[in-house]
Amino acid sequence: MQDEPTLIELTKAVADFLRNEITPIISGHNAFKLRVAINILDLATRQLTLGTDSDREELERLTNLLGMKGTLMELNRVLAERIAKGELDLRTSGLAAHLWQTTMEKLAVDQPNYASYKRELARDKDA
Amino acid sequence: MMEEKLAQSVGSWFRDAIGIAAVERLSGGASQETWRFDIVHPEGNVGAILRRAPKGYGAAPSRAAGLNAEAKLMQLAFDAGLPSPRVLHVLTTEDDLGTGFIMQRVDGETIARKILREQEFADARARLTHQLGRVLAGIHGLPDAQLPELRRMTAAKELDELERDYRSLNWPKPVFELALRWLRDNDPGPSTEVTLVHGDFRNGNLVIDRDGVRAVLDWELAHIGDPMEDLGWVCVNSWRFGEIDKPVGGFGSREELFAGYEAAGRRVYPTRVTFWEVIGTLRWGLMCGGMMQRFREGPDHSMERAMIGRRASETEIDLLRLLAARGN
């Protein structure tokens, strides 16, 4: 077990420094690059915060859906192959729900402001 | 040095030009450059754009139509009365500037977020969708006999290419797999109509002012194929920039687009349009993956490229919304 602060705290500290201290004093193309850099650190923070739980749940769903054990990468490969062969499709119980859940969890990390994601998230909350 | 050669070239074909000014490189990678400049003239300056591939970068990627074909298509569009820049000059060996062409600059906006949100474009937004339909019909109606040599594509060929691109990423994406399977199962077969296809008709490649569309740019992906491809591509969610309930570039409805297209005397095949929208969504997702790969392999190790890899998931949710929509 590593010491503290956690990776989340460290990454967030760098992102906040760049956002609050550097953004006001930089311009032109470098301002654009800085914005990208801050976005990357924010994404990393989100993944560090959310990724462990969502990976564990995805693995659990895949194990049930495919009836076999393996790593996330291995099981995703098997799922992809079975969809390609037509052995699994949207009529397969649990497949659509699994793909939706997994995709929503990706967006929560990658692009939480994407309009399609926000629309679907509101739907989840209403349900 | 580039400026001197450019000035010399302009002097040789633009009558009474005194010189050039305000030369500025706009964008592009090593293989293709875009420059903006003014032709200085006693009766008033003329805004111009140079698109060129410097010497040694002649070979275009396999999908690209090539700069000479682009110039030809733009001029054809202009001559047909479609919104297009006028081509002023196609580079020759005497110019010593590589291959490419010089066109007249068209004033207006290309940045989608501004066009979709600023008051200045409110009138344009109201009529754009119908207008885009008519413009597409015009492009698809350009006379076959005058077209330059272009790649011929079909849905089946496009699918093969997408599948190859996807497999080469070697990264399992069950949603992409689902989309590929859906596309194989729903391929509408060869199109009865085969025409010029712009190939990248979308927000970002359209110059728009307060009256509507002024110019269609970037014919790099032009080819011969199913005209419904252009109607599907302009509806891909990635070009709606947040206005997700207005499928046509965030401006309007498919019905308005189709009405504009049919008003210009061409027929719409809606199921083919949907098919191409799914292909287009998947294609943009794979392009995001491709940029991630180029970041990893080194030629462009920029943060921007890396981050685009994390936008593939946007197309995954859009594919699910298209193919596995949840109830309202």
Just name the CATH architecture of the largest domain in chain B: Alpha-Beta Complex
CATH class of the largest domain in chain B: Alpha Beta
| Backbone structural class of chain B | alpha+beta
Largest sheet properties of chain B: 5 strands, antiparallel
- Output the number of helix runs of chain B: 11
The secondary structure category of chain A is mainly alpha
Strand content of chain A: under 5%
Describe this structure in words.
The complex is a heterodimer of chains A (127) and B (328). Chain A is an all-alpha fold and 127 residues long. Chain A has one domain. Chain A is built from 5 helices and no strands. In chain A, α1 packs antiparallel against α2, α2 crosses α3 and α2 runs antiparallel to α4. The radius of gyration of chain A is 19 Å and the shape is elongated. The mean pLDDT of chain A is 95. Chain B has 328 residues and is α+β, with helices and mostly antiparallel strands. Chain B folds into 2 domains: 103 residues, Phosphorylase Kinase, domain 1; 152 residues, Aminoglycoside phosphotransferase (APH), C-terminal lobe (Aminoglycoside 3'-phosphotransferase, Chain: A, domain 2, Alpha-Beta Complex), CATH 3.90.1200.10. Chain B is 43% helix and 15% strand. In chain B, the strands form 3 sheets. Chain B has a 5-stranded antiparallel β-sheet, with helices on both faces. A two-stranded antiparallel ribbon of chain B has the order 6-9. A two-stranded antiparallel ribbon of chain B has the order 7-8. In chain B, β7 and β8 form a beta hairpin. In chain B, α9 runs antiparallel to α11.
What are the SSEs and their pairings?
The complex is a heterodimer of chains A (127) and B (328).
Chain A: H1 7-22, H2 28-66, H3 72-85, H4 95-110, H5 115-126
Chain B: H1 2-13, E1 19-27, E2 33-40, E3 46-53, H2 67-79, E4 87-90, E5 99-104, H3 112-117, H4 122-140, H5 155-169, H6 174-186, E6 195-197, E7 206-209, E8 212-216, E9 223-225, H7 228-233, H8 254-263, H9 270-297, H10 303-309, H11 312-323
